[in-house]
Specification:
The protein is an alpha/beta fold. It has 6 helices and 5 strands; from the N terminus they run βαβαβαβαβαα. Bound molecules: 4'-phosphopantetheine.
Amino acid sequence: MTTLLFPGSFDPFTRGHRDIARRAAHVCDKLYVVIMHNDSKKHLFTPEERVWMASESLKEYPNIEVLMSDGLLVDVFKEKKCDAVIRGIRSESDFRYEAEMAMANKLLYPEYDVMLFPCRDDLSLISSTIVKEVGYYGGDLSKMVPAEILDFISDRLKKGRT
Ligand code: PNS
């Protein structure tokens, strides 16, 4: 039984995130998508909203479970007996960030490992930051976020403007 873990802040969940989760779910028996806190970012959506967005976007995949944690990634990794963490990379700078994070996590827990999935070409420019910026000004987010959560994200971001 292969268990993978896809952690992230997912603030908000994008089509890029869904594509990585879909591909990871295809090569394992169980995939945990875990909504976590990134101390270097100020999150706009609450953890509960982020769990809801990921769950709605991934409901067609029976081997994916969405969870949240406000602790360390390695602790979730241990608790869920994961084989590897999955992360998507869009660019060289993403790779550097992932390599540093992997080294730190491996120091904390030597059995920790990570698999990096290169992002699909047509989704490589989508990030949660871009989604927030476009949505804040009322721009069309339909090519950036899953259809199931489009209205929720658009309304929420427009409200943030008022
Ligand atoms: O989507 P993000 O913001 O790039 O995800 C980063 C995340 C949430 C995976 C990372 O910040 C994290 O692992 N947070 C949990 C706390 C932790 O374990 N920090 C040590 C990382 S070296």
